[in-house]
Amino acid sequence: MKSMTNRSRFVILFSLVALVSTLLSFSASAGEDSAEDIREEHSFDQLIIGYTDQETSIEKIAVREKSRRDVSAISFESISPRDSRTEVVKLGKNISVKEAIRRLKGQPGIRFVEPDYIVYALTAPNDPYFASTATPLWGMRGSSSVPANPYGSNAASAWDLGYVGNSNVAVGVVDEGIQVLHPDLVGNIWRNPKETAGDRIDNDGNGYVDDINGWNFVNNNGAVYGGRTLDAHGTHVAGTIGAKGNNATGVVGVNWNANIISAKFLAATGGTTSNAIKAIDYLTDLKRRGLANIVAINNSWGGGGSSQALLDAINRAGDQNILFIAAAGNSGLNNDASASYPSNYVCDNAGSRGWDCVVAVASINSTGARSTFSNFGLTTVDLGAPGEDIWSTIPGGYLSYSGTSMATPHVTGAAALCESINPRLSAKQIRDAITSTVANTPSLLGSTATNGRLDVGAMASACFAGTYLPLSLANTSTPQVLPAGVVGTAYSQKIVTLNGTGLNTWSVTVGATPSILPPGLTLLGGVIAGTPTTAGTFTPTIRVTDGSTIIDRQVNISVSSTPPGAFTLTAPINAATRQSLTPKLSWGTSTNATEYQYCISITPGCSPTISTGTNRNVTVNGLTAATRYFWTVRSKNADGQFTTTSSGERSFTTR
Question: Which domain range does residue 617 map to?
Fold first, then answer.
């Protein structure tokens, strides 16, 4: 298992090898979910809060409102459309992130609170030679290719067998942007099949207007390419995955044919954890909606402290059969002892999925040695891949870069190639095909889980021979009872599948009520989500098929009505003295209430059971002089749900 200890840098993992005139250099320091000093660099005026959402709708609202008041929040938003339980909160001017975490950590209803970490690009030019189409791409070679290099990825061997990729297979690049019109990439860039360019309409309904080739989470628009100096790293990564092959131009990627989607969250001034989460969820949602057959997400960046919100997003991708392929890091450290994120995350939904969607990648050079800069780890890094002197596309041309950033897209490209060879394989089977066919490498012995380096040729044979494993549901109960919902409260529940091709289509068998989804909820990509509007018990039959296996399963969802709203006691004031022996008790309005109940006693802790109907006041008789009384009220709705006044219990003394 991959460890979950802390890591102290959050940087793009590569070194530029080229003749350039400027050096962009940024540093980072880190933090944890605690009130101690935050060591890693983070946004100074915002943080990420994860709520439990296990309370009633009224209590959920109260928890959120209190947390925002406690940190003098200026604004807040859900971290992504896929995670309503997590918010990015902008702090007031007079409160630090450290103080905000101290105030919120451990409060009821809060699952976690953490800084919004910053990521920076780090470049270091040291090679005067500019690109040439004659430059050997050693990282694509194998021992029998011409020219040969026994320590390359051996992609050439797969090409010789006719395995050159397929434009129906997509990969996401969470990074800088990509020069989508680069002559070696233009034919392999994803184009949204349901979006009309330039009409300023969200044609596909995914919440992003004109996301033609992806989305720019830095500027919140569809322009994923911002210029040569801004998007070199992302363009380089894309070229290794899928620069067009056999076109007599520039370089070639692991896939000659591919479908590359840009999810830009890094700019020259850095990026944030919250935008990385949005980028991952955006790609996950594209697959849920059937807009792209995404098999893997490339993550050539790393650092920051452990983020539960980020791990949640990675798990949501894994649930959609998407591999999360990540650079191990460029500090030359042992990740078993000093974790590097995101490569150290364990994406198995706390063990419920049964396999880890993260693949961590180290770097080797052309002689087979582990790169001196490359992180390693017997239990936390999976395999090595070519990462030094890697030639690929950059805006306007080609350059050689070095880093685990460059090793990672070789593995991402391999995952896409495997899917193109055998579309009937699951993400787990693709992961297994990559890791089980590595070439044993002395420099990686004891420093990676597989002791070896990527061998695309051997992987291709394993993918071709792979056997389809029938689609199944993780929960075999019939019917499958899902968590209950509440009218007016956001609801989300994933129906987990195992095996199959990962290209699942979901539908609801509609019959007479209640054999439908609760009104307000929809089924998309195996996730039932929305805000229910009607109370009741619903028993729809859910159908899922991957093209080979069809499963019909009844699910039961109970939705209760909205509990009565919060209200306060108004009179008498708490601890009032010299009150009448026939005092009038009164309280405010509780929305949705059809009845109020009160109690009064000379001992604290009474239970309100005496009905006043819909009246919000009552005159009490028969009290004793010079005596202290305790009283409280609760409201009740038509479904028998109660809300006790937020004023708690009050007291007064008679005269």
Answer: 569-654
